[in-house]
Structure formats: C-alpha cells, structure tokens
Amino acid sequence: MRCLVIVPAYNEEASVGAVVDHVRSARVPDTDILVVDDGSSDATTAKASAAGAIVVTLPFNLGVGGAMRAGYKFARDGGYDAAIQVDADGQHDASDLPSLLAALEGVDIVIGARFAGRGDYGVRGPRRWAMKLLARSLSKTCATPLTDVTSGHRAVNRRAIALFAAHYPSEYLGDTVESLVMAARAGLRVTQVPVAMHPRLTGTPSQTPLRAALYFGRALMILVLARIRRMPTLEES
Amino acid sequence: MTGTHIFSIVVAIGSVVSMLELLRRRQLKEKYAVLWLGVGIGMLVLGAFPVLLNKVADAVGVKDPPNLLLFAAALLLLLVCVHLSWEASRLEEKTRTLAEEVALLRQKIDNP
Lengths: 237, 112
What we know:
The structure holds two protein chains of two kinds. Chain A is an alpha/beta fold. In chain A, about 40% of the residues lie in helices and about 15% in strands. Chain A has eight helices and seven strands, in the order βαβαβαβαβαβααβα. Chain A has a seven-stranded mixed sheet with strand order 3-2-1-4-6-5-7, with helices on both faces. In chain A, strand 2 (about 30-35), helix 2 and strand 3 form a beta-alpha-beta unit. In chain A, helix 5 runs parallel beside helix 8 (about 210-230). Chain B is mainly alpha-helical. Helices cover about 85% and strands about 0% of the residues of chain B. Chain B is built from four helices and no strands. Chain B has helices at about 5-25, 30-50, 50-60, 65-110. Classes of the chains: A alpha/beta, B mainly alpha. At the A-B interface, strand 3 and helix 3 of A face helix 4 of B.
C-alpha cells in the first residue's frame, strides 16, 4: 500500500524539518512525505526540501483546507492508496501512523483522536463545550462514536482522497468538521483511534475567552451549514 | 424648471456618461454595465419627468411617491450586493483552484 503523509505548513520553518525527520524515522513502508507550503513568507519550503520532503508551494495563503485539498490532489494524481495529515507544528506523533493506517481496514477515514485515553491534551471552557457538541452531533451523522472531530490527524483511503481532492472545504473548521459531514453524507465510513498529542514545538496556542466564544459560534454555524448545504456525491469527484 | 429638477437630470446624465466611458475603456464587463446603464437611464427619465413617479406610485397604490422610489432603490441595491457577494465567492473558489493547480504544476516542473 502506497501512502502519502501530507504536512500542511504555514510559516513553520522552525519545526517543519524536525516533523519531516520524525515522520521518516517512524519507518512506515512505502511512504512519501509531502509538505504543502501554504504561501509562507519564511523559509518553510527550503527547510522542508532540505529535510527531503516533496514540496508543493502555494503562491499565497489558502488556509489549512486549501493546503490539504492541494495535498489530496497530489495524492489522487500520484495514485496513492492512503493519505495521512500530520501538522507541521509537531503536535502529532509519527509513532501513531501505523495504528492509523491499520485502522483504515474496512473504513474510509480514520481520525486520530486526542481525548480517547492517550496523551495529555487539555482544553477547557467554551472551546471544550464546542468540541463536545461537535463530537456528539458528528457521532450521530457518522453513526459511530467520535470524541475528537476537530483533530487534523487523519488517515484516509482512495475513496476519501477522490472526494477530498475535488471538494475539500476551505473555510475555518470546514477542513475538519464540514469535511466529516461531507464524507458521511457521501456514504464514507468513519472511525477513530486514540493518539498522543504533543505540545507545539513552536508558537503559542490561541486561548482567550472571547476567542473561545467566537469558536463556539463558528462551530454552531458550521454544523448547521454542513447539514443544510448541498453536498457532493462520490460519483461527482 | 427648479434647481432640484436640473440637479437630478445632471446627476443622471453624469452616471450614464461615466458608465459608457467605463465600457468604452473596457473597464467594465458588459453584464454589469447593462445593469447600471439601465439604472442611469431610469434616473434620467424620472429626473426629466418627475410626474411619472407619481403616476407609478398611484398605479401600485403607494401614497407617498418618494417612498416608492426609496424602497425600489434599497431593494435594487440589496440585490446587487447579494449578487456581488455571490460573484466574489465564485471568484475566490476559482482563484483557490488555480493556486492549487499552479503549485502542483510547479512541483512537477521542478522535479521531472
């Protein structure tokens, strides 16, 4: 099985090299590493190339969703059997890759979930409530218990690659939440496995009450929109 | 002829002329120009013959003719704004697709 690790990176020159090395050291067989430089103004592309990754450089910033769709297009055109998203800030642990891939047996999308027992990733307040609400609602949509739907650490198979290469949402939270609703409504099967999550190598997570409240509002908006929006089918991709 | 009468005719002529000039310089797509030309000509007609407004208001049952004008203008502007948002969303999606294609092609060219 040929596998593509997709690393969306926006101004991550400080950590992207280490992340690429880390993924390679996990020694997953038959795996290529693709860094999608999302219009960075720093040396992200150079650092990723130096670390030996395949690099696709977007001409300007599109957001995680845009970077990931470009990645999925690369995976589709290259005929990969599976694609896994790994964030460039070092939060995701490459040693979880084999368990994510193994879980792809029989399902189309595997989410690496942060709250499923492993790792020590704590979130509080409105942000946590929003995540719980999203998790409950999406568990219903996907007809399977999901605890961490905003996790970007995911493995997907050919069917999901084809869908996402054509239709991956670009708006905020669209890349995680809306994409799951889209997949479920297109008839793809979703499951989750527990993964460890590290603190970021660089940068600080944004956590103020106002931001958390805003996040809650946007989460609600995305949930409602994702339900009433017309969604693509697998045949359309 | 009152001052306001002359003023509204001048404004209407000004907007029609500026639309035509934008069209002539190829600064405006025809589909948008047609709309604004129509609005400009409507303004010109109403400016020249204000009594028309009264007749239309009477016909549709609006007591105060200026209210009809304001309502129609607000509705038109709202529709135009929604249309422009829609166009902007489509353009953004197209730009996004182009950006992805360019990035993927450049990767292919750099690594034959």
